[in-house]
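To whoever is on call:

I kicked off a structure prediction for a single chain this morning and the downstream step that reads the tokens threw a length-mismatch warning. I double-checked the sequence; it's 333 residues and nothing unusual in it as far as I can see. Pasting both halves so you can look.
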Amino acid sequence: MPPELARAGFRQEFAEFDGVLINCVRGPEAGVPVLLIPGQMSLWSSYRQVMPKLARRFTVYAIDVRGHGNSSWTPGDYSWDSAGTDVARFVRQVVGRPAIVSGNSSGGILALWCASHVPEQVAAIVLEDPPIFSAEMPRFRDRDRWVYNSLAHYVQVLGDLDHQRLADIYRQEIPVAESKTIRMPDRFVDFLDRLVTRYQRQHPGRPASLGVRWLPRSLNELIRAASMFDPDFARAFVDGRFYGSLSHEAALRTTTAPVLLLHANWNRYDRYGLVGAMDDDDAGRVRELAPQTVYRRIDAKHVIHDDKPREFIAAVTDFADTLPSLKQSHPMR
């Protein structure tokens, strides 16, 4: 537990649903519950910057989705329905009253799944740069294929659990213009791999780390998260198992809960498709299908709560202030 969270009264717990353990970090009782759901290959700890300040206003919960972190791995059983059911059970059995369900990236799709499937458990949802529409087949694979290809890369790198080279997740090109990409130099990736190998040799059985403090925290966080990530979760996106029957359009049409849509930066290139989670047309379509949506465009990277924590906190707090019905949240019966 990071010291700043321990000082703020957070503690770690586990919840079990049909044999699946969900790792949770819970804050002190402080008001309306807010459940934070990280995106794919990200851990609850990505929210560490925003949790103490949110805890002044809300009762904060942050979880690891199945297949991530200290939650159970369930190879062969990854889908919107299985992961969404975990979240729904968590709200009902652990939170115990309707919550603001906030998800980043794929976590945002899980928040939308809950609003559509278990509306009685959802007071409102925060969709933090979710891949709504862009993560549906065949568009995900054929048109906006850069994220799809990134997941295929992760599967290739992480799929052999006995011979993983975690730093190799950084060996991919990131488009920054129609004919220009950037990539970490191979020599630097090799250096990161040596750091990881040394740390794993010195700390067997622990999550991976670079083991140094003079490199950016984001580099280490991704290495740590990758070492605690079931590659079959990403494989289920690549081979199509994850999607099931979930229609993003139908889910939005049936959602009656208040919606906050936070939209981060994006680009589109002919060669790569969408580099980001959603474009302006996607965001407009969300608002058409769910007209109760409050839209906020934020100049930030995909993980807004980590890149621009102040803006994220302000957006969530301002949104909650517009919802007088949330001032008194009653236990679910």
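Update from on-call: the warning came from a stale cache, not from the record. Cleared it. Sanity check on the structure: The first strand starts at residue 11 and ends at 17.
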